[in-house]
């Protein structure tokens, strides 16, 4: 497993999609909780963080003006503290789940320490336009590159995909809507058994999650000008496909 973060370079600022594991998580791994570390066995290498890779590209962390999150699980939100200037965009259902968890699953999956530094949250509702057959799509930010929040709930209460207009095609970061590319390939099966068990166990609503995966499968098969990828499949986002840089593994 990896945790893909997508970096979009604009004329005035950068937009980061998901933040991965951050420097403070590496310096203080107890922030990741006792369950995550033995299960995921993350490689806590500062060089693999989004902020380190952005610096290697010649940018400053202060160049990141916005972070758009698929969800607030600890392996996607840990890097927020590395970009204190950025506005952080998230569906309001997801932020509510993280700040006011209703179930034991929600209480265990979020780490408040990852945003206790003070985050400039930008809440988005799930009521919006249609895009590629999905309802409730919201424009995430005003930018020369169109970036959309696409409801893909199920993994968490307010989970979303993030769609980026790359000019002649769209990129859709599906977050944890699915874990392995086999799930969205026709007649490919469910992928590795361990990942299948994991995604079912950690899903907030697995029935809704499976429904969204079925829709993504149809979308992936029938939309040639769309590239979809999940956060955790290492082979699904080859660098030559992208005009914009991407940060590879954080775990």
Describe the structure.
This protein has a single domain, classed as 4-Layer Sandwich (Metallo-beta-lactamase, Chain A), CATH 3.60.15.10. Helices cover 26% and strands 22% of the residues. The protein has helices at residues 23-27, 33-40, 50-56, 74-77, 92-99, 104-109, 193-202, 206-222; strands spanning 5-9, 14-17, 64-68, 87-91, 120-124, 129-131, 134-139, 147-151, 160-165, 170-173, 226-229, 246-247. Strand 9 (160-165) and strand 10 (170-173) form a beta hairpin.
Structure keywords:
globular, 8 helices, Metallo-beta-lactamase, Chain A, alpha/beta, 6-stranded mixed β-sheet, 251 residues
Topology (elements, then pairings):
Layout: E1 5-9, E2 14-17, H1 23-27, H2 33-40, H3 50-56, E3 64-68, H4 74-77, E4 87-91, H5 92-99, H6 104-109, E5 120-124, E6 129-131, E7 134-139, E8 147-151, E9 160-165, E10 170-173, H7 193-202, H8 206-222, E11 226-229, E12 246-247
Parallel strand pairs: 2-3, 3-4, 4-5, 10-11
Antiparallel strand pairs: 1-2, 1-12, 6-7, 7-8, 8-9, 9-10
């Amino acid at each position: 497993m990896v945790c893909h973060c997508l970096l979009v370079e604009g004329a005035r600022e950068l937009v980061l999609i998901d933040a991965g594991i951050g420097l403070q998580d590496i310096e203080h791994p107890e922030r990741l909780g006792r369950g995550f570390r033995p299960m995921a066995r993350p490689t806590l290498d500062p060089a693999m963080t989004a902020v380190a890779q952005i610096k290697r590209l010649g940018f400053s962390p202060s160049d990141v003006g916005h972070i758009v999150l698929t969800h607030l699980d600890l392996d996607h939100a840990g890097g927020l503290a590395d970009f204190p200037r950025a506005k952080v965009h998230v569906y309001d259902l997801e932020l509510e789940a993280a700040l006011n968890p209703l179930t034991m699953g929600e209480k265990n999956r979020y780490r408040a320490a990852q945003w206790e530094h003070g985050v400039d949250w930008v809440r988005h509702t799930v009521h919006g336009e249609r895009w590629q057959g999905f309802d409730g799509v919201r424009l995430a930010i005003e930018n020369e590159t169109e970036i959309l929040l696409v409801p893909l709930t199920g993994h968490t209460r307010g989970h979303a995909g993030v769609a980026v207009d790359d000019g002649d095609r769209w990129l859709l970061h599906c977050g944890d809507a699915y874990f392995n590319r086999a799930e969205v390939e026709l007649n490919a099966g469910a992928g590795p058994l361990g990942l299948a068990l994991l995604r079912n166990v950690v899903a907030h609503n697995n029935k809704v999650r499976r429904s969204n995966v079925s829709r993504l499968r149809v979308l992936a098969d029938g939309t040639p000008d769309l590239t979809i990828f999940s956060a955790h499949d290492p082979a699904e986002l080859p660098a030559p496909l992208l005009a914009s840089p991407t940060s590879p593994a954080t775990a």
